[in-house]
Design goal:
about 625 residues, 7-stranded mixed beta sheet, 22 strands, Rossmann fold, alpha/beta, 21 helices, 3 domains, elongated
Length: about 625
């Protein structure tokens, strides 16, 4: 019998019919009771009064059910429902009472407002009571009985996000955690209960955590800054707790997806995530053909994802490494299921014939040029490849963009192009010159410069994670070294925003916020892994690699900045060279490449010093910058 009832209640239609029948019964019962008590209070009524009462009651019932149906009251699943659904029921019945009086007056059967008022009010009360009772019974019968076997947790925060988490953990039979209390700073909440759980301040919470031996804390706070996250993490980690984060993410389909995740190093990067408004920028790419060179790389693949969301006419991925290109292709095919016109092409930006064939056939409106060799130490011993791939590759792609009428060409650059101390950085500075000299072009050229990207190929974060997994040591080049960091999505949004606002020959720079000391980053990552620095994992200083700087810069110091519509994006006031000057520099570099026979990097370095005046040796830059940057870091703490 129980299974039969459960099966009936699991049917959407059956539930609605049962609710409808109950509401009709309760309305009829209330009407009968009202008539009975009214008759006994006023004596014998006239013969036509019962008929009139029944007629008016039938109209009231019909209007009530119609308005409830119109407002989708019967569409609610009452075992999971919220206050909004109850309020909707009250609203529907209130409107039904008012409309009933208006209708009865219009047809001439109105016999006073008391019948509509009392019957409607008590019928609504019965409907509410039944639904609340059903909700409570369901929660009681479906909630887990053996919560003692669950892991006790404390929830930091007592807002909407935290209460949603607590309800789900308490009522979900598959949950392995049981919330015990909230921790909050709001004095109006501290000392009170929310959903049966007490709200404590941090001091009391610390005592309870120690007393009960709670080993897990979940942070459930919206709009939390990295500084707040850092303080919360270190406080609760210091109590011996595993700290997790609960968050909700809104997908492209508008659906909210909630999850409890591990505490990431990104949460401790001592700066806010850069908020780059992309709606207006995204509209720019809608209906356009977009080509992304190096589309399989870290930045390139994220550009592909974000451009795809803008509903382009066609997205073309161009990369020399087929494995990466294949991976992003399959990801986009799965996500868009044929709704995205996607073309994936294998080729090199060094190959002018291949480039020409691509540009001639597809005629892109926008080109994002992300193809480049980016690893500093590798390019120090393969300098000729940096010139051929980075400088000449950019030159070739820019030429094809002009020849085939591309509207926008955006170069992905790097902070290592500023006062470069290595071949890679100097080559990217040359790429910026190639872009900046084309101010007379019908194609709008621009470059975007930013710092290190978290999670990208070659990033220090994956390296540190692997070293921790292997038991250490973590290797850092120098304990003084600092870097600017941003996430891959941030970097890609910056590039897209700059692309939309680019005019001609501009060099965009992002305000990256405070720099991060790599030594501190290593300490944090060890702690996040639940280990103790210098006890479980050692940190070893191995010295700067060839061409590496202690301190990266985003701007050339002698230059000023212009503001843009986005407060986080600036434009360098850098007087561009002429095309002839840039061509001469490229010719000088290629002469050095040919003379070096691809092995003598000193010849290329000598040529690079000539064509990039800001290119200096690491020793020159590091010794001069060390003292001033140590003072700068001290001021930012």
């Amino acid at each position: 019998m129980g299974k039969l009832i459960s099966k009936i209640m699991s049917s959407k239609i059956a539930r609605r019919i049962i609710l409808l029948l109950f509401d009709i019964f309760s309305f009829t019962a209330v009407s009968g009771l009202y008539y009975f008590f009214k008759q006994n209070a006023n004596g014998i009524v006239t013969v036509d009064t019962p008929l009139l009462f029944i007629f008016n009651g039938a109209i009231h019932l019909a209007l009530t059910l119609l308005i409830r149906a119109f407002l989708s009251v019967y569409n609610n699943v009452w075992r999971y429902t919220s206050t909004k659904a109850y309020f909707l029921l009250i609203t529907a019945d209130s409107f039904a009472g008012i409309i009933t009086i208006i209708v009865l007056r219009a047809i001439g059967t109105y016999n006073g407002m008391w019948q509509a008022t009392f019957v409607g009010a008590f019928a609504c009360l019965l409907a509410l009571s039944a639904r609340i009772a059903y909700n409570l019974v369901y929660k009681y019968t479906s909630s887990p009985k053996n919560t003692k076997t669950r892991e006790p947790v404390a929830i930091v925060g007592a807002g909407r996000l935290a209460t949603y988490l607590a309800g789900d953990l308490s009522n979900n039979p598959n949950s392995k955690m049981e919330p015990l209390f909230y921790v909050d700073t709001d004095p109006t909440k501290i000392g009170n209960k929310i959903g049966g759980l007490q709200v404590h301040d941090k001091k009391n919470a610390e005592k309870i955590i120690r007393k009960l031996g709670i080993k897990k804390v979940i942070i459930a706070i919206t709009n939390k800054s990295s500084e707040e996250m850092s303080k919360l993490y270190y406080h609760y980690a210091g109590l011996g707790c595993e700290v997790k984060v609960f968050e909700t993410l809104i997908g492209k389909d508008g659906e909210s997806k909630a999850s409890i995740r591990e505490f990431n190093i990104e949460d401790l990067l001592f700066r806010e995530a850069i908020d780059i408004k992309t709606q207006q920028a995204g509209e720019y790419y809608k209906g356009k053909t977009v080509l992304i060179t190096g589309g399989g790389g870290s930045i390139g693949s994220e550009l592909c994802r974000q451009v795809a969301e803008c509903e382009p006419k066609q997205l073309i991925i161009f990369d020399i490494y087929e494995n990466n290109a294949y991976e992003i292709q399959q990801e986009l095919v799965r996500k868009y299921k044929g709704e995205l016109d996607l073309v994936v092409l294998i080729g090199s930006v060094r190959d002018t014939e291949r480039l020409e064939a691509v540009f001639k056939k597809y005629k892109p409106d926008v080109v994002f040029h992300a193809a480049a060799h980016k690893h500093v130490p590798l390019m120090e011993v393969s300098a000729a490849e940096a010139i051929k791939n980075n400088v000449v590759g950019t030159y070739n792609t820019a030429n094809m963009a002009e020849k085939y009428g591309v509207k926008k060409f955006i170069l992905v650059s790097t902070d290592k192009a500023v006062n470069p101390t290595n071949i890679m950085g100097a080559s990217k500075r040359m790429c910026e010159m190639v872009v900046q000299c084309r101010t007379d072009s019908t194609t709008s050229f621009a470059a975007v410069r930013f710092g290190n990207v978290l999670g990208s190929n070659g990033s220090v974060i994956p390296l540190f994670k692997r070293q921790i997994e292997e038991g250490g040591p973590i290797t850092i080049t120098d304990s003084r070294i600092i870097r600017y960091f941003m996430t891959i999505p941030e970097a890609s949004r910056l590039v897209m925003t700059a692309g939309a606002m680019a005019e001609s020959g501009q060099l965009f720079v992002l305000d990256m916020g405070k720099p991060v000391k790599i030594y501190d980053l290593a300490l944090d990552m060890i702690k996040l892994s639940g280990l103790e620095p210098f006890v479980d994992i050692q940190i070893k200083e191995i010295g700067l690699r060839p061409g590496e700087k202690l301190y990266e810069e985003l701007l050339i110091k002698s230059e000023d900045l212009d503001k843009t519509a986005n407060e986080k994006i600036f434009v360098e006031k850098d007087k561009p060279l002429t095309r002839e000057q840039v061509d001469a520099k490229i010719a000088r570099l290629m002469k050095a490449v040919n003379e070096s026979e691809n092995s003598n990097c000193d010849i290329i370095r000598e040529a690079m010093h000539e064509v990039v005046p800001t290119y200096k040796t690491p020793e020159e830059v590091n010794e001069k910058a060390a003292e001033s940057n140590e003072m700068k870091m001290a001021r930012t703490k």
